[in-house]
Every structure is written in C-alpha cells, then in structure tokens.
C-alpha cells in the first residue's frame, strides 16, 4: 500500500466518486479534475485534507493543489479510482462542458501562447544581455560599451541577434503553428502560413514607415502590397484561425481518396491571399490601436491610476484565468515599441503574493504544519509560480491576499511612473529583473523592494486587526 492510498481514497470520495469524474490529469503541482457535477465536490473537507494545500476552479477544471508530490499522488489516485489516465489536452476538451463562451475564448488564447512562452523568456533574456553589452557605456570613464572595446563581445552581440530575430521577428510562425496544433489541423500548414507572413522577399514591417516605395505583386487587374508582418500578433492569429476553419470544413466535404491533395491546396492558398489583402492590414490596425491605447494609458497623466488598477486586480485576474489575455497585449507592445511596460507589473504582482506568504511564515513561525505549506509556496511564488501561495495561503486567510494586492498596486505605480520597460515576457517573480531593459533595472529594483516590504508589513498589521477575520473564500461562498 502506498503512503498516498488513504488520501487518494478520501479525495475520491470528496470529489463525488469516480462516477462524477469526466477526466483527471495533473500538472507540476495540481490535480486537475473535470467533474460532471462540480457541486458534488465538498471543497471545505477537501481543503482540510493534510496533503491538500488549496483548491480553485479555472477553465472548467476543479484543481486541487498537492505540491511537488502530485505525480506520485496522481498515480495512486488513478489506481484507487479506476479512472482512466488522460492527457492534459483531453482534459481541456472535456472541461469545455463546464465553460461559457468567454471562458472558452480565454482558454483558446492560453493554449495558443503557452507553448510559446519558453521561447519568449529566452528571447527576453537574450535581448537584455545584448542591451547590457551593447548599449551601456560602462568602460573608459563611461564613454564606451563592451562591444566597442572588445571584438569578442562585438561578435557575441551580433551572434545573439540570430536567436533574438528568430524568436521575435518570426513570431507569427510560432503563432500560426500553435493555432493549427490547438485546433487539431495540420501543424506544417500553420508553419508555412507563418513563413508567408514574414518571408524575406516581403518588405520588413519595421521598414514600412520609412520606405519610399512599397513593392507589390502585379496581377494585371489588381496589385497587392508585399508587406511583411514580422512580430505582429493579431494578423497571425486571424490568418491562423482562417486556415484551420478552411481545413476543417474542407475535410468534411472532401472524399478521403483526394483529401491529401485538395484540402491543403484549397486551405492554404486562399488563406495566404486573404491574409495579405484583408486580414493582415486589418489585424495590423487593430494591434496598433490596442498597443496605442495601453501605452497611452500607462504614459498619460493618469498612468498612475491605470497602473494602480492593473497592479491591484492582476492577482484576481489569475483566479479567473483572464490574465492570459495580457500575453497578446505584451507581444503587441513589443512589436510596436520594442519592449513592454505591462509585463513588469505582472512580475511585481508575483513578488507581492510571495511576500504576503513570507509574512504568514513569520506570523505562524511556531506552527510547523503551516510552514510545510508556506515555505515552498513562498519559494515558488518568488520564482513566478503563484498558485500554491495564492490558493494555499493567501486566499485561505484573505487578508494576506488583500495586502499583496495593495503592495502590487503600489509597486506598479512606481514602475509605470518611472517608465520601466521589459524586453519581453520573462521569468516571473524575482528573476523578472533579468528581462528588464538595463537602463530601467535600478528603478525596477526599487519597485521590487516595495513589492516585498509593503505586503509583508501590511499582512502583519492586518493580522493584528479585525482584518484577520475576513476570508476571501468565505466572502465568495
């Protein structure tokens, strides 16, 4: 008998039994259930289990936070429950039965951008390093950069752009591939579509504004501008969904004997044509409008208010899953402004949540059982994974979550007020500073300090007042 057997049996009973489970899988720290009737799950008793660090529902899935032991626990749970093992993708498909239209749209966005995040993180670090060695005048009394005095660093600077360009300029290839993969169509067609949006024979998107003459394809009766969509997000999303729409519907009406020839041909060619004549220009305008609105809001006289609202409400957005929408906005800002002032606030929110838990460790320093949950949660939060901290500690008590939200808003005001910009989406939490543009690292460090100190002190203050009687979970129930 495994040490998890009894806990697995108890959890099975509390989620409503095997007949209430449509699908179950796990991620790095959580069991993820798709329940036929979510109301049958006894959340209060589940959270009282010694192994459970918290619960929440997101994207149609009831998620139980176990921690680093989740893989071993999951294996035992599937044995005692008799529920068949499924992949994360299968679980997401099953979860749609519990999702409304908005939740399904957000889930689609998350599935598109999540596979791209590792590349974007690497790209952000590379751009940051290139800025340090190529832009900061740190040598010869502050008159020269490393690349100006060293051929090695000059060569490194040039070489690293090979990777940076592949990640950011050719981002549409990743997006169209991710959409094809997500929608169950042919990934290679998505890749080819993406390449047609960034092909070297097209005028680079960054050169359009300064171009004296834009090349074009001449069909005699019509001309189409040969403009690329390097780093553009929305044109790639629109084109990717059109490709999958055409391919899926063509497969329904095309005989299997000729589908391998007919479907790719009549799905890809019309999509590329429409992408360059309609979807590309429209998507470019939409993307520019969104980035202009966000950037104008953050740099206007009321930028502090925008920052305060975003910083305060970002953590609650994580609970709903709406935070996935910020990935598209960040990428659009990067394509328009060569950086994003939105993402630094996300990193600060992660730090603030971890700091609130750090205060709870201090408050409950004599409680060994509490520390077993709080210490790992703090570490993971400071490294950018907030769920164990938020759902295992902060939402459980309520007042630490509020303290973290206030600290996040305060740090966000400082970040935006100092015009802090990140090169890219990066590693969340404390390592987030590695993605900040070098000239802004000092002020971001100040904002990080605020995100550590303010939630810590507020949590202790709230714990000594009537605020400690308030629980977000009780308020929501």
From TrEMBL:
Residues at the active site: 27 (phosphocysteine intermediate)
Protein keywords: Cell membrane, Kinase, Membrane, Phosphotransferase system, Sugar transport, Transferase, Transmembrane, Transmembrane helix, Transport
Protein name per UniProt: PTS system trehalose-specific IIC component
Membrane-traversing stretches: 106-129, 158-180, 187-207, 227-246, 258-282, 302-322, 402-422, 442-463
Signal sequence extent: none
PTS EIIB type-1 domain sequence ranges: 5-87
A Pfam family annotated for this UniProt entry: PTS_EIIC
Membrane topology: Multi-pass membrane protein
Subcellular location: Cell membrane
Subcellular location, principal: membrane
Classification via PROSITE patterns: PTS_EIIB_TYPE_1 (PS51098), PTS_EIIB_TYPE_1_CYS (PS01035), PTS_EIIC_TYPE_1 (PS51103)
Residues covered by the PTS EIIC type-1 domain: 107-477
Domain of life: Bacteria
